[in-house]
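4.2 Preliminary Data

To establish feasibility before requesting continued support, the project team ran the inverse folding procedure on a target of 335 residues. The structure was first converted into the token representation described in Section 3, and no sequence information of any kind was made available to the design step. The complete token record follows.
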């Protein structure tokens, strides 16, 4: 455990940009407000998929909340009743929504689960039909220790793992989410799309990639993937499909002048969609679609500012689209 802590990113960085950490069957995401979310899963290869999410906002005295989700890729119905068991001991019923496949955990259940993850324990959610969804404890202690460190709780009574008598006044307070004012777009002009036919534009876009390839910029690749949206009186947003893979594709987005010299500023080459004011990127972690990465950028009138970033957790066949949203960057958009 001490070796894990030796590699921790400095707290100032974690608070500014967020942090992700994975160990065995548990993963942690702390966002720029210092709110942390830890997700655990069944062991890779187990027949019945399950995930638990533990969430804790920053600040002294904040509580940990928990939710459980049962795997939903199988056609078989979920049990009408479900209970948490730890080392064979019944820890109470779970109020499972059989349509959605998930349920909140009671505070007492969260407390006993956290205690169990600090040691070797047999953790299972057992249906009234006898089925057992086995939650792995591997990596749980390391993830909770990292959560405590990022939030400044180590050695305090409120720490999850390494409790102590240090005053909780030293626990890091929550940081406000940055606010981004989304600027209105200028109306399009009749000749805007004529810019896409200028070969000088293609050349400057390619040069901005610093050697990175974008297949849509290759000669002969002027096709329907090219797009342009007017941003303001002097700038446009140009987009082109840059790459295609087995189950993902990525579009490049650039802010450019609306006349030579274009001076393009690259936003991303992994974009998926944009209405001009917002650029969204959504990429699968694998073809099954049970784990995703998402990000977005917002136009503030001068540039595109990154507005969000999150994953949906590990690829463990819990739910199509992913089980949870685990952000590392959150903002407030003001229209």
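Position-by-position output of the design step:
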């Amino acid at each position: 455990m001490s070796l894990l802590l030796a590699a921790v990113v400095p707290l100032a960085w974690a608070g500014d940009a967020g942090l992700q950490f994975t160990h065995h069957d548990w993963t942690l995401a702390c966002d720029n407000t210092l709110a942390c979310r830890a997700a655990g899963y069944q062991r890779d290869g187990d027949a019945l998929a399950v995930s638990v999410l533990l969430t804790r906002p920053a600040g002294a005295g904040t509580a940990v909340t928990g939710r459980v989700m049962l795997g939903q890729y199988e056609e078989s119905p979920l049990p009408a009743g479900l209970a948490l068991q730890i080392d064979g001991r019944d820890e109470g019923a779970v109020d499972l929504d059989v349509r959605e496949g998930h349920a909140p955990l009671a505070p007492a259940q969260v407390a006993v689960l956290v205690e169990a993850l600090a040691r070797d324990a047999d953790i299972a959610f057992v249906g009234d039909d006898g089925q057992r969804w086995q939650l792995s404890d591997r990596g749980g202690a390391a993830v909770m220790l990292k959560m405590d460190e990022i939030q400044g709780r180590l050695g305090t009574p409120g720490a999850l793992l390494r409790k102590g008598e240090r005053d909780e006044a030293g626990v890091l307070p929550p940081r406000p989410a940055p606010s981004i004012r989304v600027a209105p777009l200028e109306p399009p002009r009749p000749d805007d799309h004529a810019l896409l036919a200028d070969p000088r534009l293609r050349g400057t876009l390619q040069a901005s990639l610093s050697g990175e390839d974008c297949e849509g910029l290759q000669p002969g690749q002027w096709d329907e993937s090219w797009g342009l949206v007017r941003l303001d009186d002097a700038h446009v947003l140009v987009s082109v499909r840059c790459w295609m893979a087995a189950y993902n594709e990525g579009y490049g987005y650039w802010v450019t002048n609306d006349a030579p010299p274009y001076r393009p500023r690259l936003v991303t080459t992994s974009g998926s969609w944009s209405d001009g004011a917002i650029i969204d990127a959504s990429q699968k972690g694998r073809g099954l679609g049970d784990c995703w990465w998402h990000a977005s950028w917002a136009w503030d009138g001068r540039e595109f500012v990154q507005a969000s970033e999150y994953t949906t957790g590990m690829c463990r066949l819990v739910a199509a689209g992913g089980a949870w949203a685990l952000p590392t960057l959150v903002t407030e958009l003001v229209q």
